[in-house]
């Protein structure tokens, strides 16, 4: 198990109720399984995570099979609106 720093932005932070947290991740854990864990019991966050992009240690991905077990930081970026 390693600690993963998770930073939530915009609507993701509102849905999560925080801007940042740290969670323990198991060896071989994927982004998909982490999202399931994060969204457990929080339907609003589940919806946001379903449409979000992710930055794992500075690398942008939408690949839900990406491993997070060796990462230090995960940024969660929901779609942004603006002009």
UniProtKB/TrEMBL annotation:
UniProt xrefs under SUPFAM superfamilies: MoaD/ThiS (SSF54285)
Protein name as catalogued: Molybdopterin synthase sulfur carrier subunit
Organism annotation: Bowdeniella nasicola
Highest classification ranks of the organism: Bacteria, Bacillati, Actinomycetota, Actinomycetes, Actinomycetales
InterPro entries xref list: Beta-grasp_dom_sf (IPR012675), Mopterin_synth/thiamin_S_b (IPR016155), ThiS/MoaD-like (IPR003749)
One Pfam family in the UniProt entry: ThiS
């Amino acid at each position: 198990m390693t600690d993963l720093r998770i930073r939530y932005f915009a609507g993701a932070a509102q849905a999560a109720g925080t801007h940042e947290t740290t969670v323990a991740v198991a060896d071989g854990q994927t982004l998909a399984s982490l999202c399931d864990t994060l969204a457990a019991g929080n339907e609003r966050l589940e919806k946001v995570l379903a449409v979000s992009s992710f930055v794992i240690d500075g690398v942008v991905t939408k690949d839900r099979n990406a491993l997070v077990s060796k990462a230090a930081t995960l940024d969660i970026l929901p779609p942004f609106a603006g002009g």
